[in-house]
Amino acid sequence: MAINKNHEFEELDGVKCGIVEKNVPPARVEFLKKILEYNKFTVVVVPSPPPKVAAAPVAKVAEGEEAPPPPPPPAPETFTVGVTDYTYNTINAIYGRLLKTPDGHVVTMAYWHQKEAVSHDEIPYYEDVS
């Protein structure tokens, strides 16, 4: 049980993990895995559980007819990404400038959310002496 939404942890594949993100598409899994493994984290990826679906209304069928079978639920297309360090917190890691890209730059929030293709190191306000 997490204290707040920013620090979640749960058991993934029998290992207690700090949750990085939930309901992640496969392309994002590869992106996150690359960054986290470069930063020496052990990454655990499991399929996300299917969303809970409300029961479909029962169609009335005339006597002697069979009702069509309900369609099967879609296969999970999303994943839960976690790291074995259950104290991991994404917000602290990004704003604390603890994560690096494979090319040596600090991971920024825009880079983490894949809004920028290259992480541009910004000088923190407290180090800017201009």
List the helices and strands and how they pair.
Elements (H helix, E strand, L loop, with lengths): L8 E4 L2 E10 L1 H13 L4 E5 L31 E5 L6 H6 L13 H4 L18
Antiparallel strand pairs: 1-2, 2-4, 3-4
Low-confidence regions:
none
How many domain regions? 1
Run of helices and strands? EEHEEHH
- The number of helices is 3
Shape: elongated
- Going by helix content, strand content and strand pairing, the class is alpha+beta
Cα-atom Rg, whole angstroms?
21 Å
Largest sheet: 4 strands, antiparallel
Q: In whole angstroms, how far apart are the ends?
A: 45 Å
Percent helix range: 10-25%
Strand order of the largest sheet: 1-2-4-3
Strand content: 15-25%
- Mean pLDDT across the residues is 82
The number of distinct β-strands equals 4
What does this structure look like?
The structure is a single chain. The protein is elongated, with a radius of gyration of 21 Å. The longest helix has 13 residues, at 26-38. It is built from three helices and four strands; from the N terminus they run E-E-H-E-E-H-H. With 130 residues, it is of the alpha+beta class. The model has no long low-confidence stretch (mean pLDDT 82). The protein has one domain (1-51, 76-130). The protein has a four-stranded antiparallel β-sheet with strand order 1-2-4-3, covered by helices on one side.
Give me some keywords for this one.
130 residues; 3 helices; 4 strands; 4-stranded antiparallel sheet; alpha+beta; 18% strand
